[in-house]
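Checklist before submission:
- one chain only
- standard amino acids only
- sequence pasted in full

Submission:
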Amino acid sequence: MEEKEIINETQTTPESYEIVGVRFKEGGKIYYFAPEGKTIEQGQCVIIETARGLEYGFVAEGNRTVPAKDVVLPLRPVVRIANDKDKKQYEYNKELEVSAMEECKKKIAEHGLEMKLIEAEYTFDNSKLMFYFTAESRVDFRELVKDLASVFKTRIELRQIGIRDEAKMLGGIGICGRPFCCASFMSDFVQVSIKMAKEQNLSLNSAKISGACGRLMCCLRYEHEAYESEAAITPKVGSKVSTPDGVGTVTEANLLTGDLKVKFVDDKGENIRGYNRDKVKQLPKKE
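Returned file contents:
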């Protein structure tokens, strides 16, 4: 009898979970929540429970089932699909944030703090007001927080963010003529290196490969894998290759087209001819 009771109490771990993906801002990171039996479609607005209380979110991914190994527990629930009252509250909060920005800027000036205010954000239930700012060094804003709390009568939180986060929040138009990737569709920042620019034969002039934030452009990452795979099958500049016309040295290589320029040296001097990488064979280096 006791063994039977122990067996009945044994809990099995689910093999999969039903989730919905929610963003808090356009182009923001997607967070996953439990729909709690609700059928939720992409494009709807929902009220969800988060670590900082109830929040208003935008559904980026409707109901779907994923393996348990892909889920980070615990999954917080979707409280409800947003109704008209919720939408009005969200719009009202946005109006409050505009006035909060102006008031905070005045207080920053009064306290003589070297900081640039970027954004103000209320939680859905107005229990907290957050201000995001940038600064070149650490800022002691303790007195500013006290001052703001006495004005807004709610919990105040100030967060210092980086220059890339500033560009994501403010948005803008890149040198390509399109809205910033980070502010339009990128959920997370990607790692970008100067090596990526080198492998794509781009100018290493920082002004030409840097975004409005002053950091390397995120789009350098987009074609990096393609360039890596093409580089693996393309003879490098300076390598020796066997061609239909003899052995020569690669002087130029176009990774995307596979076109090469090969230099030959003979009694008559130097001459350069063009080949596709499919027509040549790279020779091993002499040790």
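Reviewer check: Residues 1-10 have pLDDT under 50 and may be disordered.
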